[in-house]
Design brief:
By secondary structure, this protein is of the alpha+beta class. It has helices at residues 4-19, 28-63, 69-102, 138-144, 150-157, 167-185, 199-205, 231-235, 294-312, 358-363, 388-398, 410-413; strands at 120-125, 148-149, 163-164, 189-191, 196-198, 225-227, 243-245, 251-260, 279-289, 316-320, 332-340, 345-356, 366-368, 375-377, 379-387, 406-407, 421-422. It has two domains: 26-102, Helix Hairpins, CATH 1.10.287; 116-422, BirA Bifunctional Protein, domain 2. The protein starts with a helix and ends in a 5-residue tail after the last strand. The structure holds one RNA strand of 89 nucleotides.
RNA sequence: GGAGGCGUAUCGAAGCGGUCAUAACGAGGCGGUCUUGAAAACCGUUUGGCGGCAACGCCACAGGGGUUCGAAUCCCUUCGCCUCCGCCA
């Protein structure tokens, strides 16, 4: 949620900023509703003040032995009018809230306008690997090395599901352990959140109400729940409706969870194997900061995510996303894109974003400033650190050898019993 | 799944239709007096949202709804916590 006052003060300036995202938003109706709201509040509150005053007098008059039945009758009429106006006010408030909840975040000023085509690589690590043999793609490698059972995965859970088997499971877990240990070393607190979250969590994160269909809903009605699409959705809700002290910040967390996404209708040739599945593993970095420290936090988290890929020795590029390609809740996003040789393409393994106070406003998360004791919205930031489902294929492909084996990066070996290479299984 | 109890400020807790909503009482926090310093004691202070230029007003006793001239208090409902029974891959 953005600051309503920005719209009140200069709706055109806000509109300009959204145009960078490729969204033309008309605030005319909103501004009318806002005026209507203020006028209704004025009316309702005047009536309530009257009611409060008279209601306090009634017991005194009674005590004095006076007949209050006429006054009570008057107040009943007044009460009915209050109820009517209150209902109207609630409806207006609901419309305003719905409009605001659907507004995306304002992009940072330094972002380029437009969509994906304007994303800008700002850093490259390593080079495209060169092979003296015909390289295999990750699906072939995963099968020949006995790492993934795609067929039985589909049998168990349908398209977009797979089973990590034997050494594949160990490699997957080694990646996660490597990520986890790296983050612990940086002083981040390890969190294992619930996978089933209440609707409110999605609202704060900014996924709802717009993207309700992108997640798996598992219950309806007031107690409705959904499977989390990323641990961010859980971590961003830790301090919902809470007030922290400035000295409590920054709070640095990372969480592991399986992530669940419908990914409806998104299958393409370049998304075969485990590139885009309904369930994948991800470690997510998350920070709550004060407003003035969030840029610093962002740089730290980007560099941590980059460090993980560099530690694995894999070729990647870091891209600064154009305004239109940042997810709705985010003011800025950098993507780490790992190279997948078989597709000659760079695929996202981490998305690092600064939501600024957008999520904090939605979840009412504030901190008390040391200096003047005033309340301020926190800033929230997240960065994948990392999602395994693209690292795993990139690792297999980039590290494959002529004999069909795959070299395990040094940093993972201690998690895999010291094994240096994955060898093809004999049939 | 069944039965019951509970949810009030930073914490504990009183109030159970109007004189109890910044909210009794106790503790904690902050400021001060006293003290060489600390403790103790004493005094003061200590929620947030909304509307308004302001004066000021409105709202909030887990959330939502209802009854009433008036609700923390009565009723319905959702959520959460606790106790007992049942079930438990």
């Amino acid at each position: 949620m953005i600051d309503v006052n920005l719209i009140r003060q200069d709706a055109n300036a806000v509109r300009e900023r959204y145009l960078k995202r490729g969204k033309d938003i008309d605030f005319t109706d909103f501004l009318k509703l806002d005026e209507q709201r203020k006028s209704l509040i004025g009316q309702v509150e005047t009536m309530k003040a009257e009611r409060n005053k008279v209601s306090a007098e009634i017991p005194k008059l009674k005590k004095a032995g006076q007949d209050v039945s006429a006054t009570i009758a008057e107040m009943k009429t007044l009460g009915d009018r209050i109820a009517e106006q209150d209902t109207e006010l609630n409806e207006v408030n609901e419309k305003i809230r719905d409009f605001l909840l659907r507004l995306p975040n304002l992009p940072d000023d330094d972002l380029l306008a437009g969509g994906k085509e304007n994303n800008k690589p700002i850093k490259t690590f390593g080079v495209k690997p060169h092979f003296d043999f015909t390289p295999k793609d990750h699906v072939e490698l995963a099968k020949s090395l006995g790492l993934i059972d795609y067929e039985r995965g589909a049998k168990l859970a349908g398209n977009g599901s797979w089973i990590y088997t034997g050494m594949g499971a160990r490699l997957e877990w080694a990646l996660l352990n490597y990520f986890i240990d790296s983050h612990i070393a940086k002083g981040y607190t390890f969190m294992l959140p619930p996978y089933m979250l209440s609707y409110e969590c999605g609202l704060t994160a900014g996924q709802f109400p717009k993207f309700e269909d992108d997640v798996y809903q598992i219950a309806n009605g007031e107690g409705r729940k959904f499977m989390l699409p990323t641990a961010e959705t859980a971590l961003v809700n830790l301090y919902r409706d809470e007030i922290l002290n400035e000295s409590d910040l920054p709070k640095k967390f990372f969480g592991y969870s399986a992530c669940f996404r419908r990914e409806a209708g998104s299958y393409r040739a370049e998304e075969r194997g485990m590139i885009r599945g309904h369930q994948f593993n991800k470690v997510e970095l998350f920070q709550y900061t004060t407003a003035d420290k969030s840029d610093e936090a962002f740089e730290e988290m980007v560099s941590m995510a980059c460090g993980l890929v560099e530690g694995l020795g894999l070729h990647y590029q870091l891209s600064k996303l154009a305004a239109g390609d940042c997810s709705d809740s985010m003011a800025r996003t950098y993507d780490i894109e790992i190279y997948i040789p078989s597709m000659n393409i760079y695929k996202e393994v981490s998305s690092a974003s600064n939501a600024r106070d957008y999520q904090a406003r939605r979840g009412n998360m504030r901190y008390r400033k040391d200096a003047d004791k005033k309340l301020e919205f926190m800033h929230t930031l997240n960065a994948s650190g990392l999602a395994t489902s693209r690292v795993f294929p990139a690792l297999l492909e980039q590290n494959q050898n002529a004999d069909g084996s795959v070299t395990i990066p040094e940093v993972l070996r201690k998690y895999m019993g010291g094994i240096e290479k994955l060898e093809p299984i004999k049939k």
